[in-house]
């Protein structure tokens, strides 16, 4: 067998679905974790500077933001390892691995491990649907603030009406109702929208939400791959079949 035929045979056994899912998962998690971490820091600065100038009013919020940033570190580390494990499992169940190890024999342990990956991937898929929905919340909040600023800059709005345009973050439960000042209006609101923290955090939240969506798509691909692999392993002893997932 020539070198070209050998390369073609090896490429035919690559688990392309798992490979694409791994790349998409790594990209999505990296965008979500990296952008989310920086956006949370910018959000804390905006709230502490303009909406809650008393430290005791936003002490709990500061702790929650720090906790979420630590959780982001854990998510990034976990999915880095889990993506590699799923990719290795995909390679393990391909015809390329079968050629390397001669006749492949399935065991109860192997089927249990494959079934565990199916169950865990489904659980993670459902969990990331929730993460995707949760990541859309700050995008919605920042969009409302940006819309208010755009309304003030609109020629149709009279200068005397600018002070009537306000944003009160207390209604979202982010800070307590006794926080000072709790809301901003008019030119102060416009100044917030012109800050680098607002501009950067708003766009980073959008990218983080897109990263969460990409991770959901990657996990859906993983679901199909792991389910198919589990079925192949289950019937491996009765059928001479292989998988390219």
Q: Describe it for me?
A:
This protein is 73% helix and 2% strand. It is built from seven helices and two strands, in the order αααααββαα. The chain has a two-stranded antiparallel ribbon. The longest helix is centred in the middle third of the chain and has 45 residues. It is elongated.
List the helices and strands and how they pair.
Layout: H1 3-12, H2 16-51, H3 59-92, H4 95-100, H5 108-152, E1 166-168, E2 183-185, H6 186-193, H7 196-234
Antiparallel strand pairs: 1-2
Summarize the structure.
The protein has helices at residues 3-12, 16-51, 59-92, 95-100, 108-152, 186-193, 196-234, and strands at 166-168, 183-185. The chain is mainly α.
Helix content: over 70%
Distance between the termini: 25 Å
Q: Specify the overall morphology.
A: elongated
Largest sheet: 2 strands, antiparallel
Report the strand count.
2
Radius of gyration: 25 Å
Sheet/helix structural class: mainly alpha
Adjacency order of strands in the biggest sheet = 1-2
Order of helices and strands: HHHHHEEHH
Q: Give unreliable regions as ranges.
A: 241-245
Rounded mean pLDDT score:
81
Q: What is the percentage of strand-forming residues? A: under 5%
Contiguous helical run count: 7
